[in-house]
Design goal:
By secondary structure, the chain is an alpha+beta fold. Helix content is 18%, strand content 62%. It contains three helices and 13 strands; from the N terminus they run H-E-H-E-E-E-E-E-E-E-E-H-E-E-E-E. Strand 2 and strand 3 form a beta hairpin.
């Protein structure tokens, strides 16, 4: 009889533990909403949603809007035997999205993880330039846009700061392919001026060491064009490195 009672107690105790585990699992966080604090230092408003998909896996989406901030643009090259340097300030702004998949070494949302991510952005900006006409100098802005798509890998760690508050640290590296478009349609310019701008781009684009540094990329070999209302230059299929990283704070539920 004692052995029977002992066995029954063990079964009841085991059932109680399993029930507690089941209840704990039922109310465990399935998703986290967070924001990257480092992004705000770079004037990027952002939100990050991470969804649990398994005991050690999750998927997520980081998205936001880059507010205007000054970035130095520099073009250097050897033109007519002289080394020419152009510098100017641009303030790119626009949308970006960053979907990702994570594998945690311990359990979802906790501990170290490996992340595979994608990145897409679409930025607009104004590029200042000078143009000489009728003995005078015209200071104007070319309208620019830049888009890119790529991906890479990141390493990180996520851990709870409280019952529902989490901190997420990560750093990653990848590659992307992008296009940039520059266009000027200043009302002070005419068809002949636009054709001159096009011919100058085509004349000097193959000169030694001409490079345009913009949005973290080195752009060369532009394709130029013109009409009676504008002149433009396109940089297509340029490959460049991308970084992913930050310190995020989030709420789990």
């Amino acid at each position: 009889m004692k052995q029977l009672l002992f066995a029954a107690a063990v079964l009841i105790s085991s059932g109680s533990v399993n029930a507690q585990d089941a209840v704990a699992g039922l109310f465990a966080p399935k998703r986290i909403v967070k924001t990257n604090l480092v992004g705000y230092a770079l004037l990027s408003v952002n939100a990050n949603y991470e969804q649990k998909t398994g005991g050690k896996t999750s998927v997520g989406l980081l998205a936001g809007y880059k507010l205007p901030n000054v970035i130095k643009v520099e073009a250097i090259g050897t033109i007519d035997g002289e080394k020419q340097t152009y510098t100017g300030d641009v303030e790119p702004q626009g949308l970006f999205v960053n979907p990702y998949f994570r594998f945690y070494t311990k359990e979802t949302f906790k501990g170290f993880y490996v992340e595979a991510f994608l990145r897409y952005f679409n930025y607009n900006f104004l590029l200042p330039y000078d143009y000489e006409k009728n003995g005078g100098n015209i200071r104007a802005n070319a309208e620019g846009s830049a888009t890119a798509f790529g991906g890479g890998l990141a390493l990180g760690a996520q851990f709870p700061l409280g019952p529902r508050v989490y901190m997420d640290l990560n750093l990653g590296y990848g590659m992307a392919v992008g296009n940039a478009h520059l266009e000027t349609n200043d009302p002070n310019l005419e068809l002949e001026d636009y054709q001159t701008i096009q011919s100058n781009i085509e004349k000097y684009q193959d000169d030694e060491d001409i490079q345009v540094f913009i949005l973290g990329d080195i752009l060369t070999d532009p394709k130029a064009g013109s009409s009676d209302t504008k002149a433009w230059a396109d940089f297509e299929n340029k490959v460049f490195a991308i970084m992913r990283g930050g310190i995020s704070i989030g709420y789990a539920f």
